[in-house]
Design brief:
The protein is mainly beta. 13% of the residues lie in helices and 34% in strands. The protein is built from three helices and nine strands; from the N terminus they run βββββββααββα. The strands form two sheets. Strands 2, 3, 4, 5, 6, 7 and 8 form a seven-stranded mixed sheet that branches.
């Protein structure tokens, strides 16, 4: 597997001795090459992720644990006002040695989904993109709100309920019934 040297997510773990129990700690800042999150709320492109990273050598490879902090921006799902959300999320990931990747390729079955979830070291490098993306997406609310009590928008006129009078209504007529509007007794007279 080739290493994308332009990706900010690749981290060189060559300083970590390959003896089980050895560890190193790092503070990283990654500028996102593209937005990361969900459609209504995401960390924008070029925003910084602050990462506290601990890598530990284990028998299978390298165990990574960390904390990612960032600011996400988006829209309220009820009224479409701007929303910002602070992310402070932990993540863990095991990166297995490349030798196991070769054994898996030799013995792989075409539909073996379990093997697809395993991440591997690429030489001395680990790719942090998947665990960071997972941590960010899991930290975000699926329906962001500007306020828990947000009343949303009127479905008739699109105005915010907070600025409309309490007796605001729309007299709507279903266009499918418009042919009956001239019938006696149905016109409301």
């Amino acid at each position: 597997m080739k290493i994308n040297t332009n990706s900010p997510f690749f981290f060189n773990a060559h300083d970590l001795p390959r003896r089980a129990g050895e560890f190193r700690e790092y503070s990283l800042t990654i500028s996102l090459p593209e937005a990361m999150g969900i459609p209504m709320l995401s960390v924008p492109k070029n925003e910084n992720l602050a990462i506290e990273l601990r890598i530990t050598s284990v028998d299978e490879g390298i165990f990574v644990s960390g904390q990612v902090s960032a600011q996400a921006y988006g829209e309220c799902t009820r009224c479409l006002d701007p929303v910002d959300f602070e992310i402070d999320q932990m993540f863990n990931q095991l990166y297995e040695y490349e030798e196991k990747a070769e054994r898996i390729k030799k013995n792989a079955k075409p539909d073996d989904e379990e093997d697809e979830e395993i991440l591997f070291l690429i030489g001395d490098f680990i790719n942090l993109e998947t665990p960071l993306r997972d941590a960010i997406v899991l930290a975000l609310p699926s329906n962001p709100l500007c306020d828990e009590e947000c009343a949303g928008l009127c479905s008739g006129c699109g105005e915010k309920w907070t600025v409309l009078p309490a007796d605001h209504t729309h007299r709507g007529t279903d266009p499918r019934w418009s042919g009956l509007s001239n019938w006696p007794g149905l016109s409301g007279e």
